[in-house]
Structures are given as structure tokens and as C-alpha cells.
Amino acid sequence: MQSRLSIARLLIVQTGSTHLHGDYPRWFERALGFEMPLIRAHAGERLGSALDRVRPQGIIVTGSPLSVIEKASWMLELGDDLLRVGARGTPVLGVCFGHQLLARAAGGDVVQNPRGREIGTVRVQLTEAGRKDVLFAWARGPEIEVQATHVDAVDPLPAGATVLASNENTAAQAYRLSETVAGVQFHPELWAAAMRDLILSRRDKLAAEGRDADALAAQVHEVEAGAVLRAFAAQAERS
């Protein structure tokens, strides 16, 4: 796999595993069009050794079936390490679990969303700051469609965080902590077929919540939110 963005050295920090479509790192490689080195943080691999080996221009932190609410020791260590890397000038983008991990490390909190599970193709509204942010410069209006699947949410945000996107389910759909550190609750790496399979894999859980997996899957369609990752790669290339 090759792309004009492949000169950006991006490191994937994997925070969990899934059997669907080749696991989380493959999703990002598919979205960006090139292979990336990775560490499996959930399996005990540490960020420090990878930084020396890869010298990344940017870091993407994946989603996970695990919960930041658990506050496992590796999660606490990883969050702090990522913030330090960002403070030294390396762009860091947290996705879903990664978004929550960075927010908690910066002094916010993560809770089970009282509004319930968000799953499928959904709409989020960009704030004024979001419309100006490098991650969303591609957006043609104040609202975008994204693929989402999560039960937890960031609440409250860390002091000083800037909300970039929001919707009725989740106030912090995207935020920026600093010029180099940002998070998105949704999944810019997901494509429609994978989103449908994720929904169907949660059929029993959705049924227990009074929701119809088939109906949700039927509403899924392709979106342009993968541009968030391309914007991040371009930012990393310039860093």
C-alpha cells in the first residue's frame, strides 16, 4: 500500500483487539492507504521503545473494546506518556478509546454515557473552533456525518480543552487539548461495510437495549470523515 502521505511516519498505538476486518490497525491502514508500525499497548508494549525505533512524526491511538473507566495501570501510564510526547511537539490523535484516554490523562473524566449507546452513521455539528481546525478544514459545512460506536463518553472535558464537534448524544465528539493533541469520539477509519458488521456483531446487546440491529445497519452509508485522518497525516508530515 502506498500513498502520497506515506512519507509521514505515523505510529499506531493499539489499545485493544477485534476479530472484525483484520483488527484496528488494519482499519487505519486501509483508510490512509499505507502500512504503519504499531505497538500493542494493551498487550504490555510500551510507547518509549517505539519512539526510539520509529521516530514518528505523528501518533494515532486506536479504539478498543476495553473501557478507560477501568483505569488499568497501562492505560494510566500510556495516557501520561502520550501527553508528554504531544507536549514535545509530536501530533497525537486519539480515536474513540484513544480520545477518552487522552482526555482522562489531561484531567477530564470518562463515564458511561447516560444518553446510551451511539452506533451507526450519525451527524455531528462542528463548533466555530472546529470549522477552523486543521482536522476539519475539508468540511463543506457546519455538520458532517461520521461512523460511531461507543458507550462511554468524556465528561467533563479537561480544563482548557476546546470542543471541535458535538451532537445530542455526546457533547465532546471532538476536542483539541493543544496544537498537537486532539481526539475524536467517532471512528474516521471506518467504512460502511465494517460499520454494518460492527452493528450486527452487537445484535444481542442492541436487542437488550430495545434497538433493532438490522434497522440500524440498513441506515449506514459511506461518509467523508476519513478526511480527518488525511488531515492529521498532513499535519504530522509538516511537524
Overview of this protein structure:
The chain contains 9 helices and 11 strands. It has helices at 24-32, 47-54, 73-87, 97-105, 128-132, 192-201, 203-208, 213-218, 227-238, and strands at residues 10-14, 38-40, 58-61, 92-95, 110-112, 118-126, 143-150, 152-154, 162-166, 174-176, 181-184. It has a 9-stranded mixed beta sheet, sandwiched between helices. The chain has a two-stranded antiparallel ribbon with strand order 5-8. Helix 3 crosses helix 4. The longest helix has 15 residues, at 73-87. The protein is globular and about 45 Å long.
Shape: globular
Q: For the record, what CATH class applies? A: Alpha Beta
Radius of gyration: 16 Å
N-to-C CA distance = 23 Å
Number of strands: 11
Please state the second-level CATH architecture. 3-Layer(aba) Sandwich
Sheet with most strands: strand arrangement: 2-1-3-4-11-10-9-6-7
Give the class from helix and strand content and strand pairing: alpha/beta
Oligomer: single chain
Q: Encode the helix/strand succession as letters.
A: EHEHEHEHEEHEEEEEHHHH
Relative strand content: 15-25%
The overall pLDDT average reads 96
The count of helical stretches stands at 9
How much helix is in the residues? 25-40%
Main sheet characteristics = 9 strands, mixed
Number of domains: 1
CATH topology: Rossmann fold
Uncertain segments of ≥5 residues (pLDDT<50)? 1-6
